[in-house]
Amino acid sequence: xxxxxxxxxxxxxxxxxxxxxxxxxxxxxxxxxxxxxxxxxxxxxxxxxxxxxxxxxxxxxxxxxxxxxxxxxxxxxxxxxxxxxxxxxxxxxxxxxxxxxxxxxxxxxxxxxxxxxxxxxxxxxxxxxxxxxxxxxxxxxxxxxxxxxxxxxxxxxxxxxxxxxxxxxxxxxxxxxxxxxxxxxxxxxxxxxxxxxxxxxxxxxxxxxxxxxxxxxxxxxxxxxxxxxxxxxxxxxxxxxxxxxxxxxxxxxxxxxxxxxxxxxxxxxxxxxxxxxxxxxxxxxxxxxxxxx
Length: 293
Prior knowledge:
Layout: H1 3-16, H2 21-41, H3 47-50, H4 53-65, H5 70-89, H6 98-102, H7 106-114, H8 119-132, H9 135-144, H10 150-153, E1 161-163, E2 170-176, E3 181-185, H11 191-204, H12 222-235, H13 246-258, H14 263-270, H15 274-292
Antiparallel strand pairs: 1-2, 2-3
């Protein structure tokens, strides 16, 4: 069956469904473009047998490479999804990947892409904090890129910093969750900052039990963490309109996913559900493929 035949059948389906004239024209145009793309990629195989989620994904990737807008991409996805659903009702398409197509919609990808640091951006940010940041800022950045939420960081107590022995180096930092305790290993880069923090606290003679306190001996607040991170974003030339506190956690999640760390381990570290991390994983892998192609 030729493309024209599929389009005629699909047009009748849209007319019966009381779609407006403009909607029908848009749907048919997008589906025609998709089917022509499939025909150019197959030889003697029938079009319906060639349709797959991977084919849709590749078609959208090439559309983006041509500079099509997010609105145009979403219209194509809506049209293709509708067409595949029609084929399914006609028993012409065995696989049901409507939900997978939905996850390609530009709105969801754009949200993650906006908070997804490139390696160059992360390196610049890390170098900037290391060179110009004080010991508190280094500790904050270190913990955030380990996937720890800012709200959990401000609740860390001095007693949560554990040494390997009575007079030995710092070994790990405990992050206390309602149902478990997570241990964040202290590496040689973080060691000097913790040593400086404890020296300063001894000199300050503060009775405050929290790890991070201001010069006024008050515990750090979430707005303070946000201000610190935003100031480094600005200095590094990173947009604060697109990048927020969650950016650093997403960077940690992306690195874990690209290094094949199990979803369950990422979920435990970040206190996010397995389902949420799985959804993020699909998007990050898609974006990574898009960047490397």
